[in-house]
Sequence to fold (275 residues):
Amino acid sequence: MDIQHLTSDAQAAAVSEALGRDGAVIVDDLAPQHLLDRVEVELAPSLAATPTGPDDFSGRNTRRTGALIARSPASRELVTHPLILETAALFLGHATNFQLHLTQAIAIGPDSPAQPIHRDQWAFDFFPFPAGYEVQCNTIWALTDFTEANGATRVVPGSNQAADRLSFQPSDTVPAEMTRGSVLIYSGSVYHGGGANTTSDTRVGLNITYNLAWLRQEENQYLSVPREVALTLPEELLRLMGYARGAYALGYIDDLRDPIEALRPTGAAVGFAAR
Fold:
């Protein structure tokens, strides 16, 4: 089974349907090239300063650069892209609200082996979530073309319906080949992994993910984004970052105050709703 490709004018309902069925879908050419050019320029110093991974899973010739909201103002447009947020709201609509889980540029260098195939939701200490209960809606935006040769993310389509703790090999997968500006949207339950880069070029993608707001975030947005930067951000983005309650009462401050009041004392008492 191949990964379905949708056009950039696709509706969130169609994206969510494909995501629920196959665990992954690609929307072609969703981000404008001039926006990606800005992201590249803004992230270049941080990417160059990021050390390569310490183990085979992180990638010994792979750089993983986080804190995108603080380091790249242009990336905020991808974090809050309407189609992505509408899709996440549908896909994660069984919960009260969702939040930003992770922002990370992933640069797979030349001659890198394939990453072990895994489920992203295993980050929650391998908790066995009930089958069909989705906790993440993830994206990888192509900052370079993604090809099978340069390490395009490899996916086992339909494996979101499979049992947990299974073992797959790269030969069981298909590459998420896509052009620069396209985005792979995938669930936390689908089995996948970074592909082997057999070229002399570096494959770069922006991994921006969302999870249910009652779960802990993989990237600590409150510390990754300095307070002085957070004070300049719009309320919608702040709430998506976690300055909102998770469900009814999770994450309030002191005397039951809305967490947005830590930055915006007049903020309205609403969350980033999943539905």
Observations:
- The two ends are 31 Å apart (CA to CA).
- Residues 5-262 form a domain with the Jelly Rolls fold (CATH 2.60.120.620).
- The chain has one domain: 5-262.
- Strands lie at 5-6, 24-27, 62-66, 98-108, 136-142, 154-155, 174-175, 183-187, 192-193, 203-212.
